[in-house]
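Sample pair:
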Amino acid sequence: MPAWEGKSKVFKLWVNAVNREPDFVGGPTYFESKDGVHWTRPILRQDEYHGSRENNILVIDPKAHWAANAILNVVRDPDDPDPERRYKGFLSRHPRWPIVSPDEIHWKRLSVPRIPSGDESNMSYDALTGTYIATLKVAGPFGRSQAVSTSKDFEHWTEPRLLYHADAEDQQRAKAWILARLADPTRQDPVYNDPRYYGVDIYNVAVFRYEDLYIILPAMFHTTGPRPEGNTDGFHHVQLACSRNLTSWTRLADRQPFIDNSPVGDAWDTMCMLPPSAPLVRGDELWFYYTAAKYRGKPPNPPPHAGAVCLAVLRRDGFMSLDAGEKPGTLLTKPFVLTGAKLLVNVDAAEGSLEAEVLDAEGKTLAVSQPIVGDQLRATVQWKSGDLADLKGKTITLRFKLRNASFYSFWVGAS
C-alpha cells in the first residue's frame, strides 16, 4: 500500500519487482507519485543493474538475493517519537525481519527476533490503539490459512495465532465458482484444470481498523489443478469480513467477491490478486491498491509483462449498504446515549428518500426529520419537529425509513 507523505506531498510505494528474462532478478524497488495514479522511478543509485546505478532499486543487504532481499508490508507511522523509525516494514519472505527507515529509502534491520511466516504476509497500523497488526501465512484445516500477531513497539510481537481459514462450505462453493468461471467466455481460463484438485484456501489476508471495527479482506485462492513445475494453478478473488476483537469474525455479503477478477481484455487482474493492507482515504473515496497478475500457471506464450499494482475505488463507508426499493424499509438502532448535537448520514437517495426519527426509551417520538434526498456522503439531518441538540445526554433510539435508497452509515457529530 502506498504511504502519503504530507510534508513532501507525494505518495510513496514499495514494489518487489521481478525480471525473469534473460536473467532472473528479484528485489525491492521504490516509486513516487503526486496524484496516486501516475508514478515515477526516483534514481537511488543503491544497486548496479546491467552495468548502471541509474535505477530505483532498494538495497538493505548487498549479499541478499530473492527472496531474502524482499521488502514487504511497509507502513508509515506518524506517531513514533523517533524520526528514524517513521517507516516500518518487513525484510525477507522466510521469515519476516522487522526493519525501519527515516526516509523510506534507507533501511536498517532491528536487533529483534524474526517473525515466523510462510511466503505471504500483510500488515497495517491501527493508529487508534497504537498497534501494528501482521497477518502471517500458516497451515490450517483447509490448506493455506492466516495467523495474526500484534505489537505495540514493533519489536515485541505476540505469538501468532490462527485468525482466518476456509471451511467446508467454502469448498462446496469453490467447485461452483470454478465451474461457473470455466463456463464464462469473458473470463480467463486457468492453464491447468483437474477437478480432483478443486478447492479453496486463504492465500493472504488484510486486516485494518475502520472506525470502530476491523475490516478483513481475505484473498480466496481457488485451486483448479497441479502445475508441472510444482504448486497449483487457479485464481483469486477478495472477499469481505469484519471483526471486533481480532479473535472471531463475521463473513459478509454471503461470501460474494468484494474485489473480483476483471474480464479478459486490457486488465491486469484477470487471474490473481492479493488484497491491499489498508485503503487510503482520499476525500470522499477509499483507494485500495492491490497486487494483480494475468496468470498463475504459465501459458504456452506468456505476455512479457504479467503483473501490476492495481487500484480499486470505493465511496467512503461503501463496504455494504441497507437497500430499499419502492416498498419502504425500516431500520431501528439499539438504544444509546446521545453524545452530540447533530446527526449525519451517508446515503444514496438519488431516486428516493431517507427519513429519521428519534425515540425515547418507551418508544415515544421525540423528533422527526425532513426527508433526505440525493446521493450524499455526509448529509446533516434537518428536523421538522423536535431537535437532536435538546436531547444530548439522554438515551435514545433512532428509526430510519428509506425508499428507493441505499443507506451506508450514520454518525453523531458535535454542534
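The longest helix spans residues 168-182.
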